[in-house]
Structure formats: C-alpha cells, structure tokens
C-alpha cells in the first residue's frame, strides 16, 4: 500500500509486525518524530526486553502509542478537560500527554510511576499498525540509551541491529525531533520536554502561558542532562565564536566538526567537517539528528555548534543540542 508521504508498505509487513508484537517481540516503528522501539504495552516481559535492547535503566518511563484520541480512556483515568482539549486538537501529532495510569498499563511501562505518557503518532504506517494490532504499543526512541534518536530505518538497524526483531520501514521521519511532553494531570499543564508541537501553539489553544520546562534539575527519570548525544563531544558557543573555536580545536589536535548556520559554516572555517544548518527551523529539526550522525561518521571527535533562537521548533532543537553537550552519564 502507498501513502501520501510517498512510503510504500505491504500489508504483509504490517501483519508481520503485528505477529511480532503478539509474540512478545520488538518492532521498530516509524513515527512523524523519530523511530520508536515498540512492544505490546500490556506484556511486561516484552516491555522488559525494550530496556535490555536499549541499555536503558528500567526506572525510565515509556510512551504508550495508541491509534486514536477516542481510545484515551482505555489507558488512563481522571482526564482533566484541558487534557481532553489537547488530545482532540493535536492528535494524531507530536504531543505526548502524561496522565494518571489506567489499570491496563503495567508498572513496567511507567518505571513504577502512577502516571503514564500517551500519544497518537501522526504517521500512516504507525496508525495502520496500531489499529491492526488493536492494543497499545509502548515505545521509546529506537536508539541506544543516551545517544542520538533514529530518523530513518537505516539508523535503527545501525543502532540496534539484532536486538530488534523487525524494522517497519516508513521512510524518513518528517518532524525529526521527539514529541512535546506535557504533564496534563493538573488543570494548568506543564511542558516536561519541548518537541514537535511548539509551546506557542499550545499556549494559543489554551489561551495562557504554560509552565516552562525546568532545565536545572532532573524532573523525571529519563531526563538526564546528557541525552541525544553523538559520539563526538559537543561544545556550544555563540555564533560569532564558532569559527575561532573550531580552529582552536583543530590546532589542539581535534577532528573538529562545525554545525552552524550558513553564513558561519560557509566562511573559510578550518575544520574537519562542516554542516551548514538550514535557516528554516522545520528543516533544521528534520535534519538535526542526521547532521549529528553525519559528523560522527566523518570521524569528528568534537562538534562546535551554535544554538538557534528558541522560538517555535527552535526551542526543541536548542534543548536537544544542550543535552547533547551536557555531561556524559555513567549508568
Ligand atoms: O516522539 C517521541 O516522543 C518518541 C516517539 C517514538 O514517539 N518517543 C520518545 O520516547 O521520545 P523516549 O522514551 O525516548 O522519551 C520519552 C520520555 C521519557 O524519557 C520520560 O522522560 C518521559 O517521556 N515520560 C514517559 N512517561 C512519563 C511519565 N509518566 N511522567 C513523566 N515523564 C514521562
Ligand atoms: Mg529517547
């Protein structure tokens, strides 16, 4: 079957993916944000396999993916009116709502929390899989713990190899950064992670300012300072200092990569590799993780980057770059 996005997936691929989920296996699923590593949300043993495959601590909660907003009450309880409004307006789409856990969701999927994160992905292949499967698919991004999220099926294969039973190839993810996570348990929601749905569009719908995400402390498990990180160390500098910093790094013996807007990247910068980031934030978000992977592949051991302005999708991009530059974790 062909989809509007130009992707062709056969019915037998969907059936195969459903078979793997029913048998307790792991399927990589395409979404509009990044690829997810999916398992049957109601199968604790399958959920446990996700953590092993990713090398992720089991205390880190996962997102349950469902086929439509009308199914929300099957998975959560006590949905405030604001959460209902957000679900109806933004789903399918890159918005994840944290709500009170319904009985169907095992504690293995929530890292022991009494809340659960839920979303309806806006990708025709994911939606077809979810409706054919008929249950919830719990899925973190399909990368090794702490590293760059995959936005193509090839990225998934390179990251996880045999740890995933089947990769459903739905092409390249359009949005390119993860969903916006909103704690919607209270009447005034809080953004826990900026992402594909902008803060501005949430505030426009709700008619008031939202609580800002805290960058200063670990709010929930899975929000460590270092995340989304390429192999190369990432250093963030002001745009006007990118050229000098890259040259300094080269002279100090590094293989320096540069990730900066076109005017900076096009200058005669002495670096091992240069990626000029698009001026459009939509295009930048779409390409971000691929750019980081590319600089790794070119052999860079250090990436000098500047942050975009933090409006619209720029907020999510800046958040991921800050985390990529954060102190690396030791598990
Ligand atoms: O776009 C996305 O959100 C992708 C695609 C595959 O849907 N998924 C994704 O999952 O980014 P993951 O596991 O890499 O990040 C989900 C984050 C967790 O790290 C955690 O911080 C937060 O969601 N989360 C999950 N359940 C939560 C809960 N009950 N309370 C607070 N935060 C939660
Ligand atoms: Mg992730």
TrEMBL record:
It comes from Streptomyces virginiae (Streptomyces cinnamonensis). It comes from the Bacteria. The keyword Transferase applies. The keyword Transferase applies. It catalyses: L-threonine + hydrogencarbonate + ATP = L-threonylcarbamoyladenylate + diphosphate + H2O. Keywords: ATP-binding, Cytoplasm, Nucleotide-binding, Nucleotidyltransferase, Transferase, tRNA processing. Its main location: cytoplasm. Belongs to the SUA5 family. NCBIfam families: L-threonylcarbamoyladenylate synthase. This is Threonylcarbamoyl-AMP synthase. Required for the formation of a threonylcarbamoyl group on adenosine at position 37 (t(6)A37) in tRNAs that read codons beginning with adenine.
